[in-house]
Amino acid sequence: MQAKTVKAWSFIHKWTSLACTVFLLMLCLTGLPLIFHDEIDAALNPPSWQPENPSAARLSFDQILNAALNEHKGAVPLYMSFDIDRPVVNVTTGPWVGVPDTQMTFRSFDATSGTVVPAADRGETVMEFIYQLHVDMLLGLPGMLFLGFVGFLFVLAIVSGVVLYAPFMKRLDFAAVRSTGSTRLKWLDLHNLLGIVTTAWVLVVGLTGIINTLETPILEAWKAQDLKDLIAENQATAAAQRQGLPRASLDAAIRQAVAAVPNMTLQFVAFPGSSYSTSAHYAIFLHGKTPVTQHIVTPVLVNAATGDFVGLREMPWYSKALSLSRPLHFGDYAGLPLKLIWAALDIVTIIVLGSGLYLWLCKRPSNPRSR
Known about the structure:
The protein is of the alpha+beta class and 371 residues long. The chain has helices spanning 3-35, 37-44, 61-71, 124-136, 141-168, 183-197, 199-213, 215-232, 235-242, 250-260, 317-329, 335-363, and strands at residues 76-82, 88-94, 105-110, 116-117, 264-270, 281-288, 297-303, 309-312. Residues 366-371 have low confidence and may be disordered.
């Protein structure tokens, strides 16, 4: 490689690394507990609740819905979701359709009795704060997009570091760490060694992180295009529903949806008028049953007046990429062993970032040790 080319790549590596190091350190430090989010939540909120009738048959979805609406007279249903590990159904209601999130009411119900399940202890808010700091720095969409740009700089830093590794190591054995010389020289060798060893992992985490920061635009694009097309095909029934037709059985609607996509299982329901449905339909979202396909979601529209299947639309490739990137980013595919590997690599990345910052500070002309 020519000297000019090496110099150009060195410039890219230096300044992209410096521009994103502080933010990446924050992301690595907040990402570390998030890898064990489920385990930490379980420790902060031990499972003290038990269903009232463990051996009894579960109540129907219509019965749970009626229990939620009886608790909040005059409210309208917006969403229904389902716990994986407990016989619990979660219902979100609001005083009217289109209500802002701050005015929605979320309640969990025992699927064996219909009684309200106590809310989790406030200890979980610690993890919620860490999650929001990691996702958008508490700044909402602007924060997410900024972190996406940071991720882009990070990928450039990784690529430029890989390009520079070969000319740097041409006089040394691969992965050599020189035991003689200055402290800075040892840290330089260690920085390069750990950086090249973790290249594949940091690229995966960096690229999936960039995709995750585009969550809001991706979901909005999906709702504005594919879901809108599915809705547009059924405007006639939507108009009829707005005239006050009665609501069909939720259980019957769910059976129609599951029958339409038999290789998938129920994830959540969006009721008529909610942001994920129309004024005339249940939007029933199902996901796959395998560790990979469980993150792929398919929405099914069911006529809310008749309970008849209307249509479905598979999520486009960019939405599937988002769904797959979330668990991959946090190592949430293969249980605790993969999480431990992700945590170890995260710690190594923190060392790489910290050593890179140390090397830059030591090399600055104003630093006596660099003279």
